[in-house]
Amino acid sequence: RAAPSPKMMENTVFMSFTFYSTILILKMYVVAIITGQVRLRKKAFANPEDALRNGGLQYYREDPDVERCRRAHHNDMENIFPFLFLGAIYSLLDPSPAVARIHFFIFCVGRIIHTIAYLLQLKAPMRSVAYSVAQLPCF
């Protein structure tokens, strides 16, 4: 006989939330990796010991491309972490599964487009529109 599944695993809204949350967290990891790669490529290190190991203290500096990646990552933290909290609470309030999935999907796609627009420096207002669309389900 199979072991009973936890109640949360039976909650289709929570499972949908978990799916989209996982995508968003993985996206944040990708941005972190991109930031590190840009830092290495541009030889712009945040710590003197890293600069010394990679050519000298002259590489202990800021770079506009690295800073852009860092701002994108910071923006993710400002928006995705609250989504994780609010989405978990929302999942427990027994919303319509279809409506919840739409909310989670819109937020997730909006954040992905926002990051792409940020990192690739797409023309305005692409990033602002993506940000605004992603915020709609949060209200």
What is the structure about, briefly put?
By secondary structure, this protein is an all-alpha fold. The protein is built from 6 helices and no strands.
Architecture overview:
The structure is a single chain. The chain is an all-alpha fold and 139 residues long. The chain has one domain (11-138): Membrane associated eicosanoid/glutathione metabolism-like domain (Four Helix Bundle (Hemerythrin (Met), subunit A)), CATH 1.20.120.550. Helices cover 74% and strands 0% of the residues. It contains 6 helices and no strands. It has helices at 7-10, 12-42, 48-53, 64-92, 97-119, 126-135. Helix 2 (12-42) runs antiparallel to helix 4, helix 4 (64-92) runs antiparallel to helix 5 and helix 5 (97-119) runs antiparallel to helix 6 (126-135). The chain is elongated and about 60 Å long. The termini are far apart. 26% of the residues are buried. The model has no long low-confidence stretch (mean pLDDT 94).
SSE diagram, text form:
Layout: H1 7-10, H2 12-42, H3 48-53, H4 64-92, H5 97-119, H6 126-135
Helix pairs in contact: 2-4, 2-5, 4-5, 5-6
What keyword list fits this structure?
single chain, 139 residues, mainly alpha, Four Helix Bundle (Hemerythrin (Met), subunit A), 6 helices, 74% helix, EC 5.3.99.3, MGST1-like
SSE topology string: HHHHHH
Shape: elongated
**Major sheet summary line:** none
Q: In angstroms, what is the radius of gyration? A: 19 Å
User: Low-confidence parts, pLDDT < 50 over ≥5 residues?
Assistant: none
CATH topology: Four Helix Bundle (Hemerythrin (Met), subunit A)
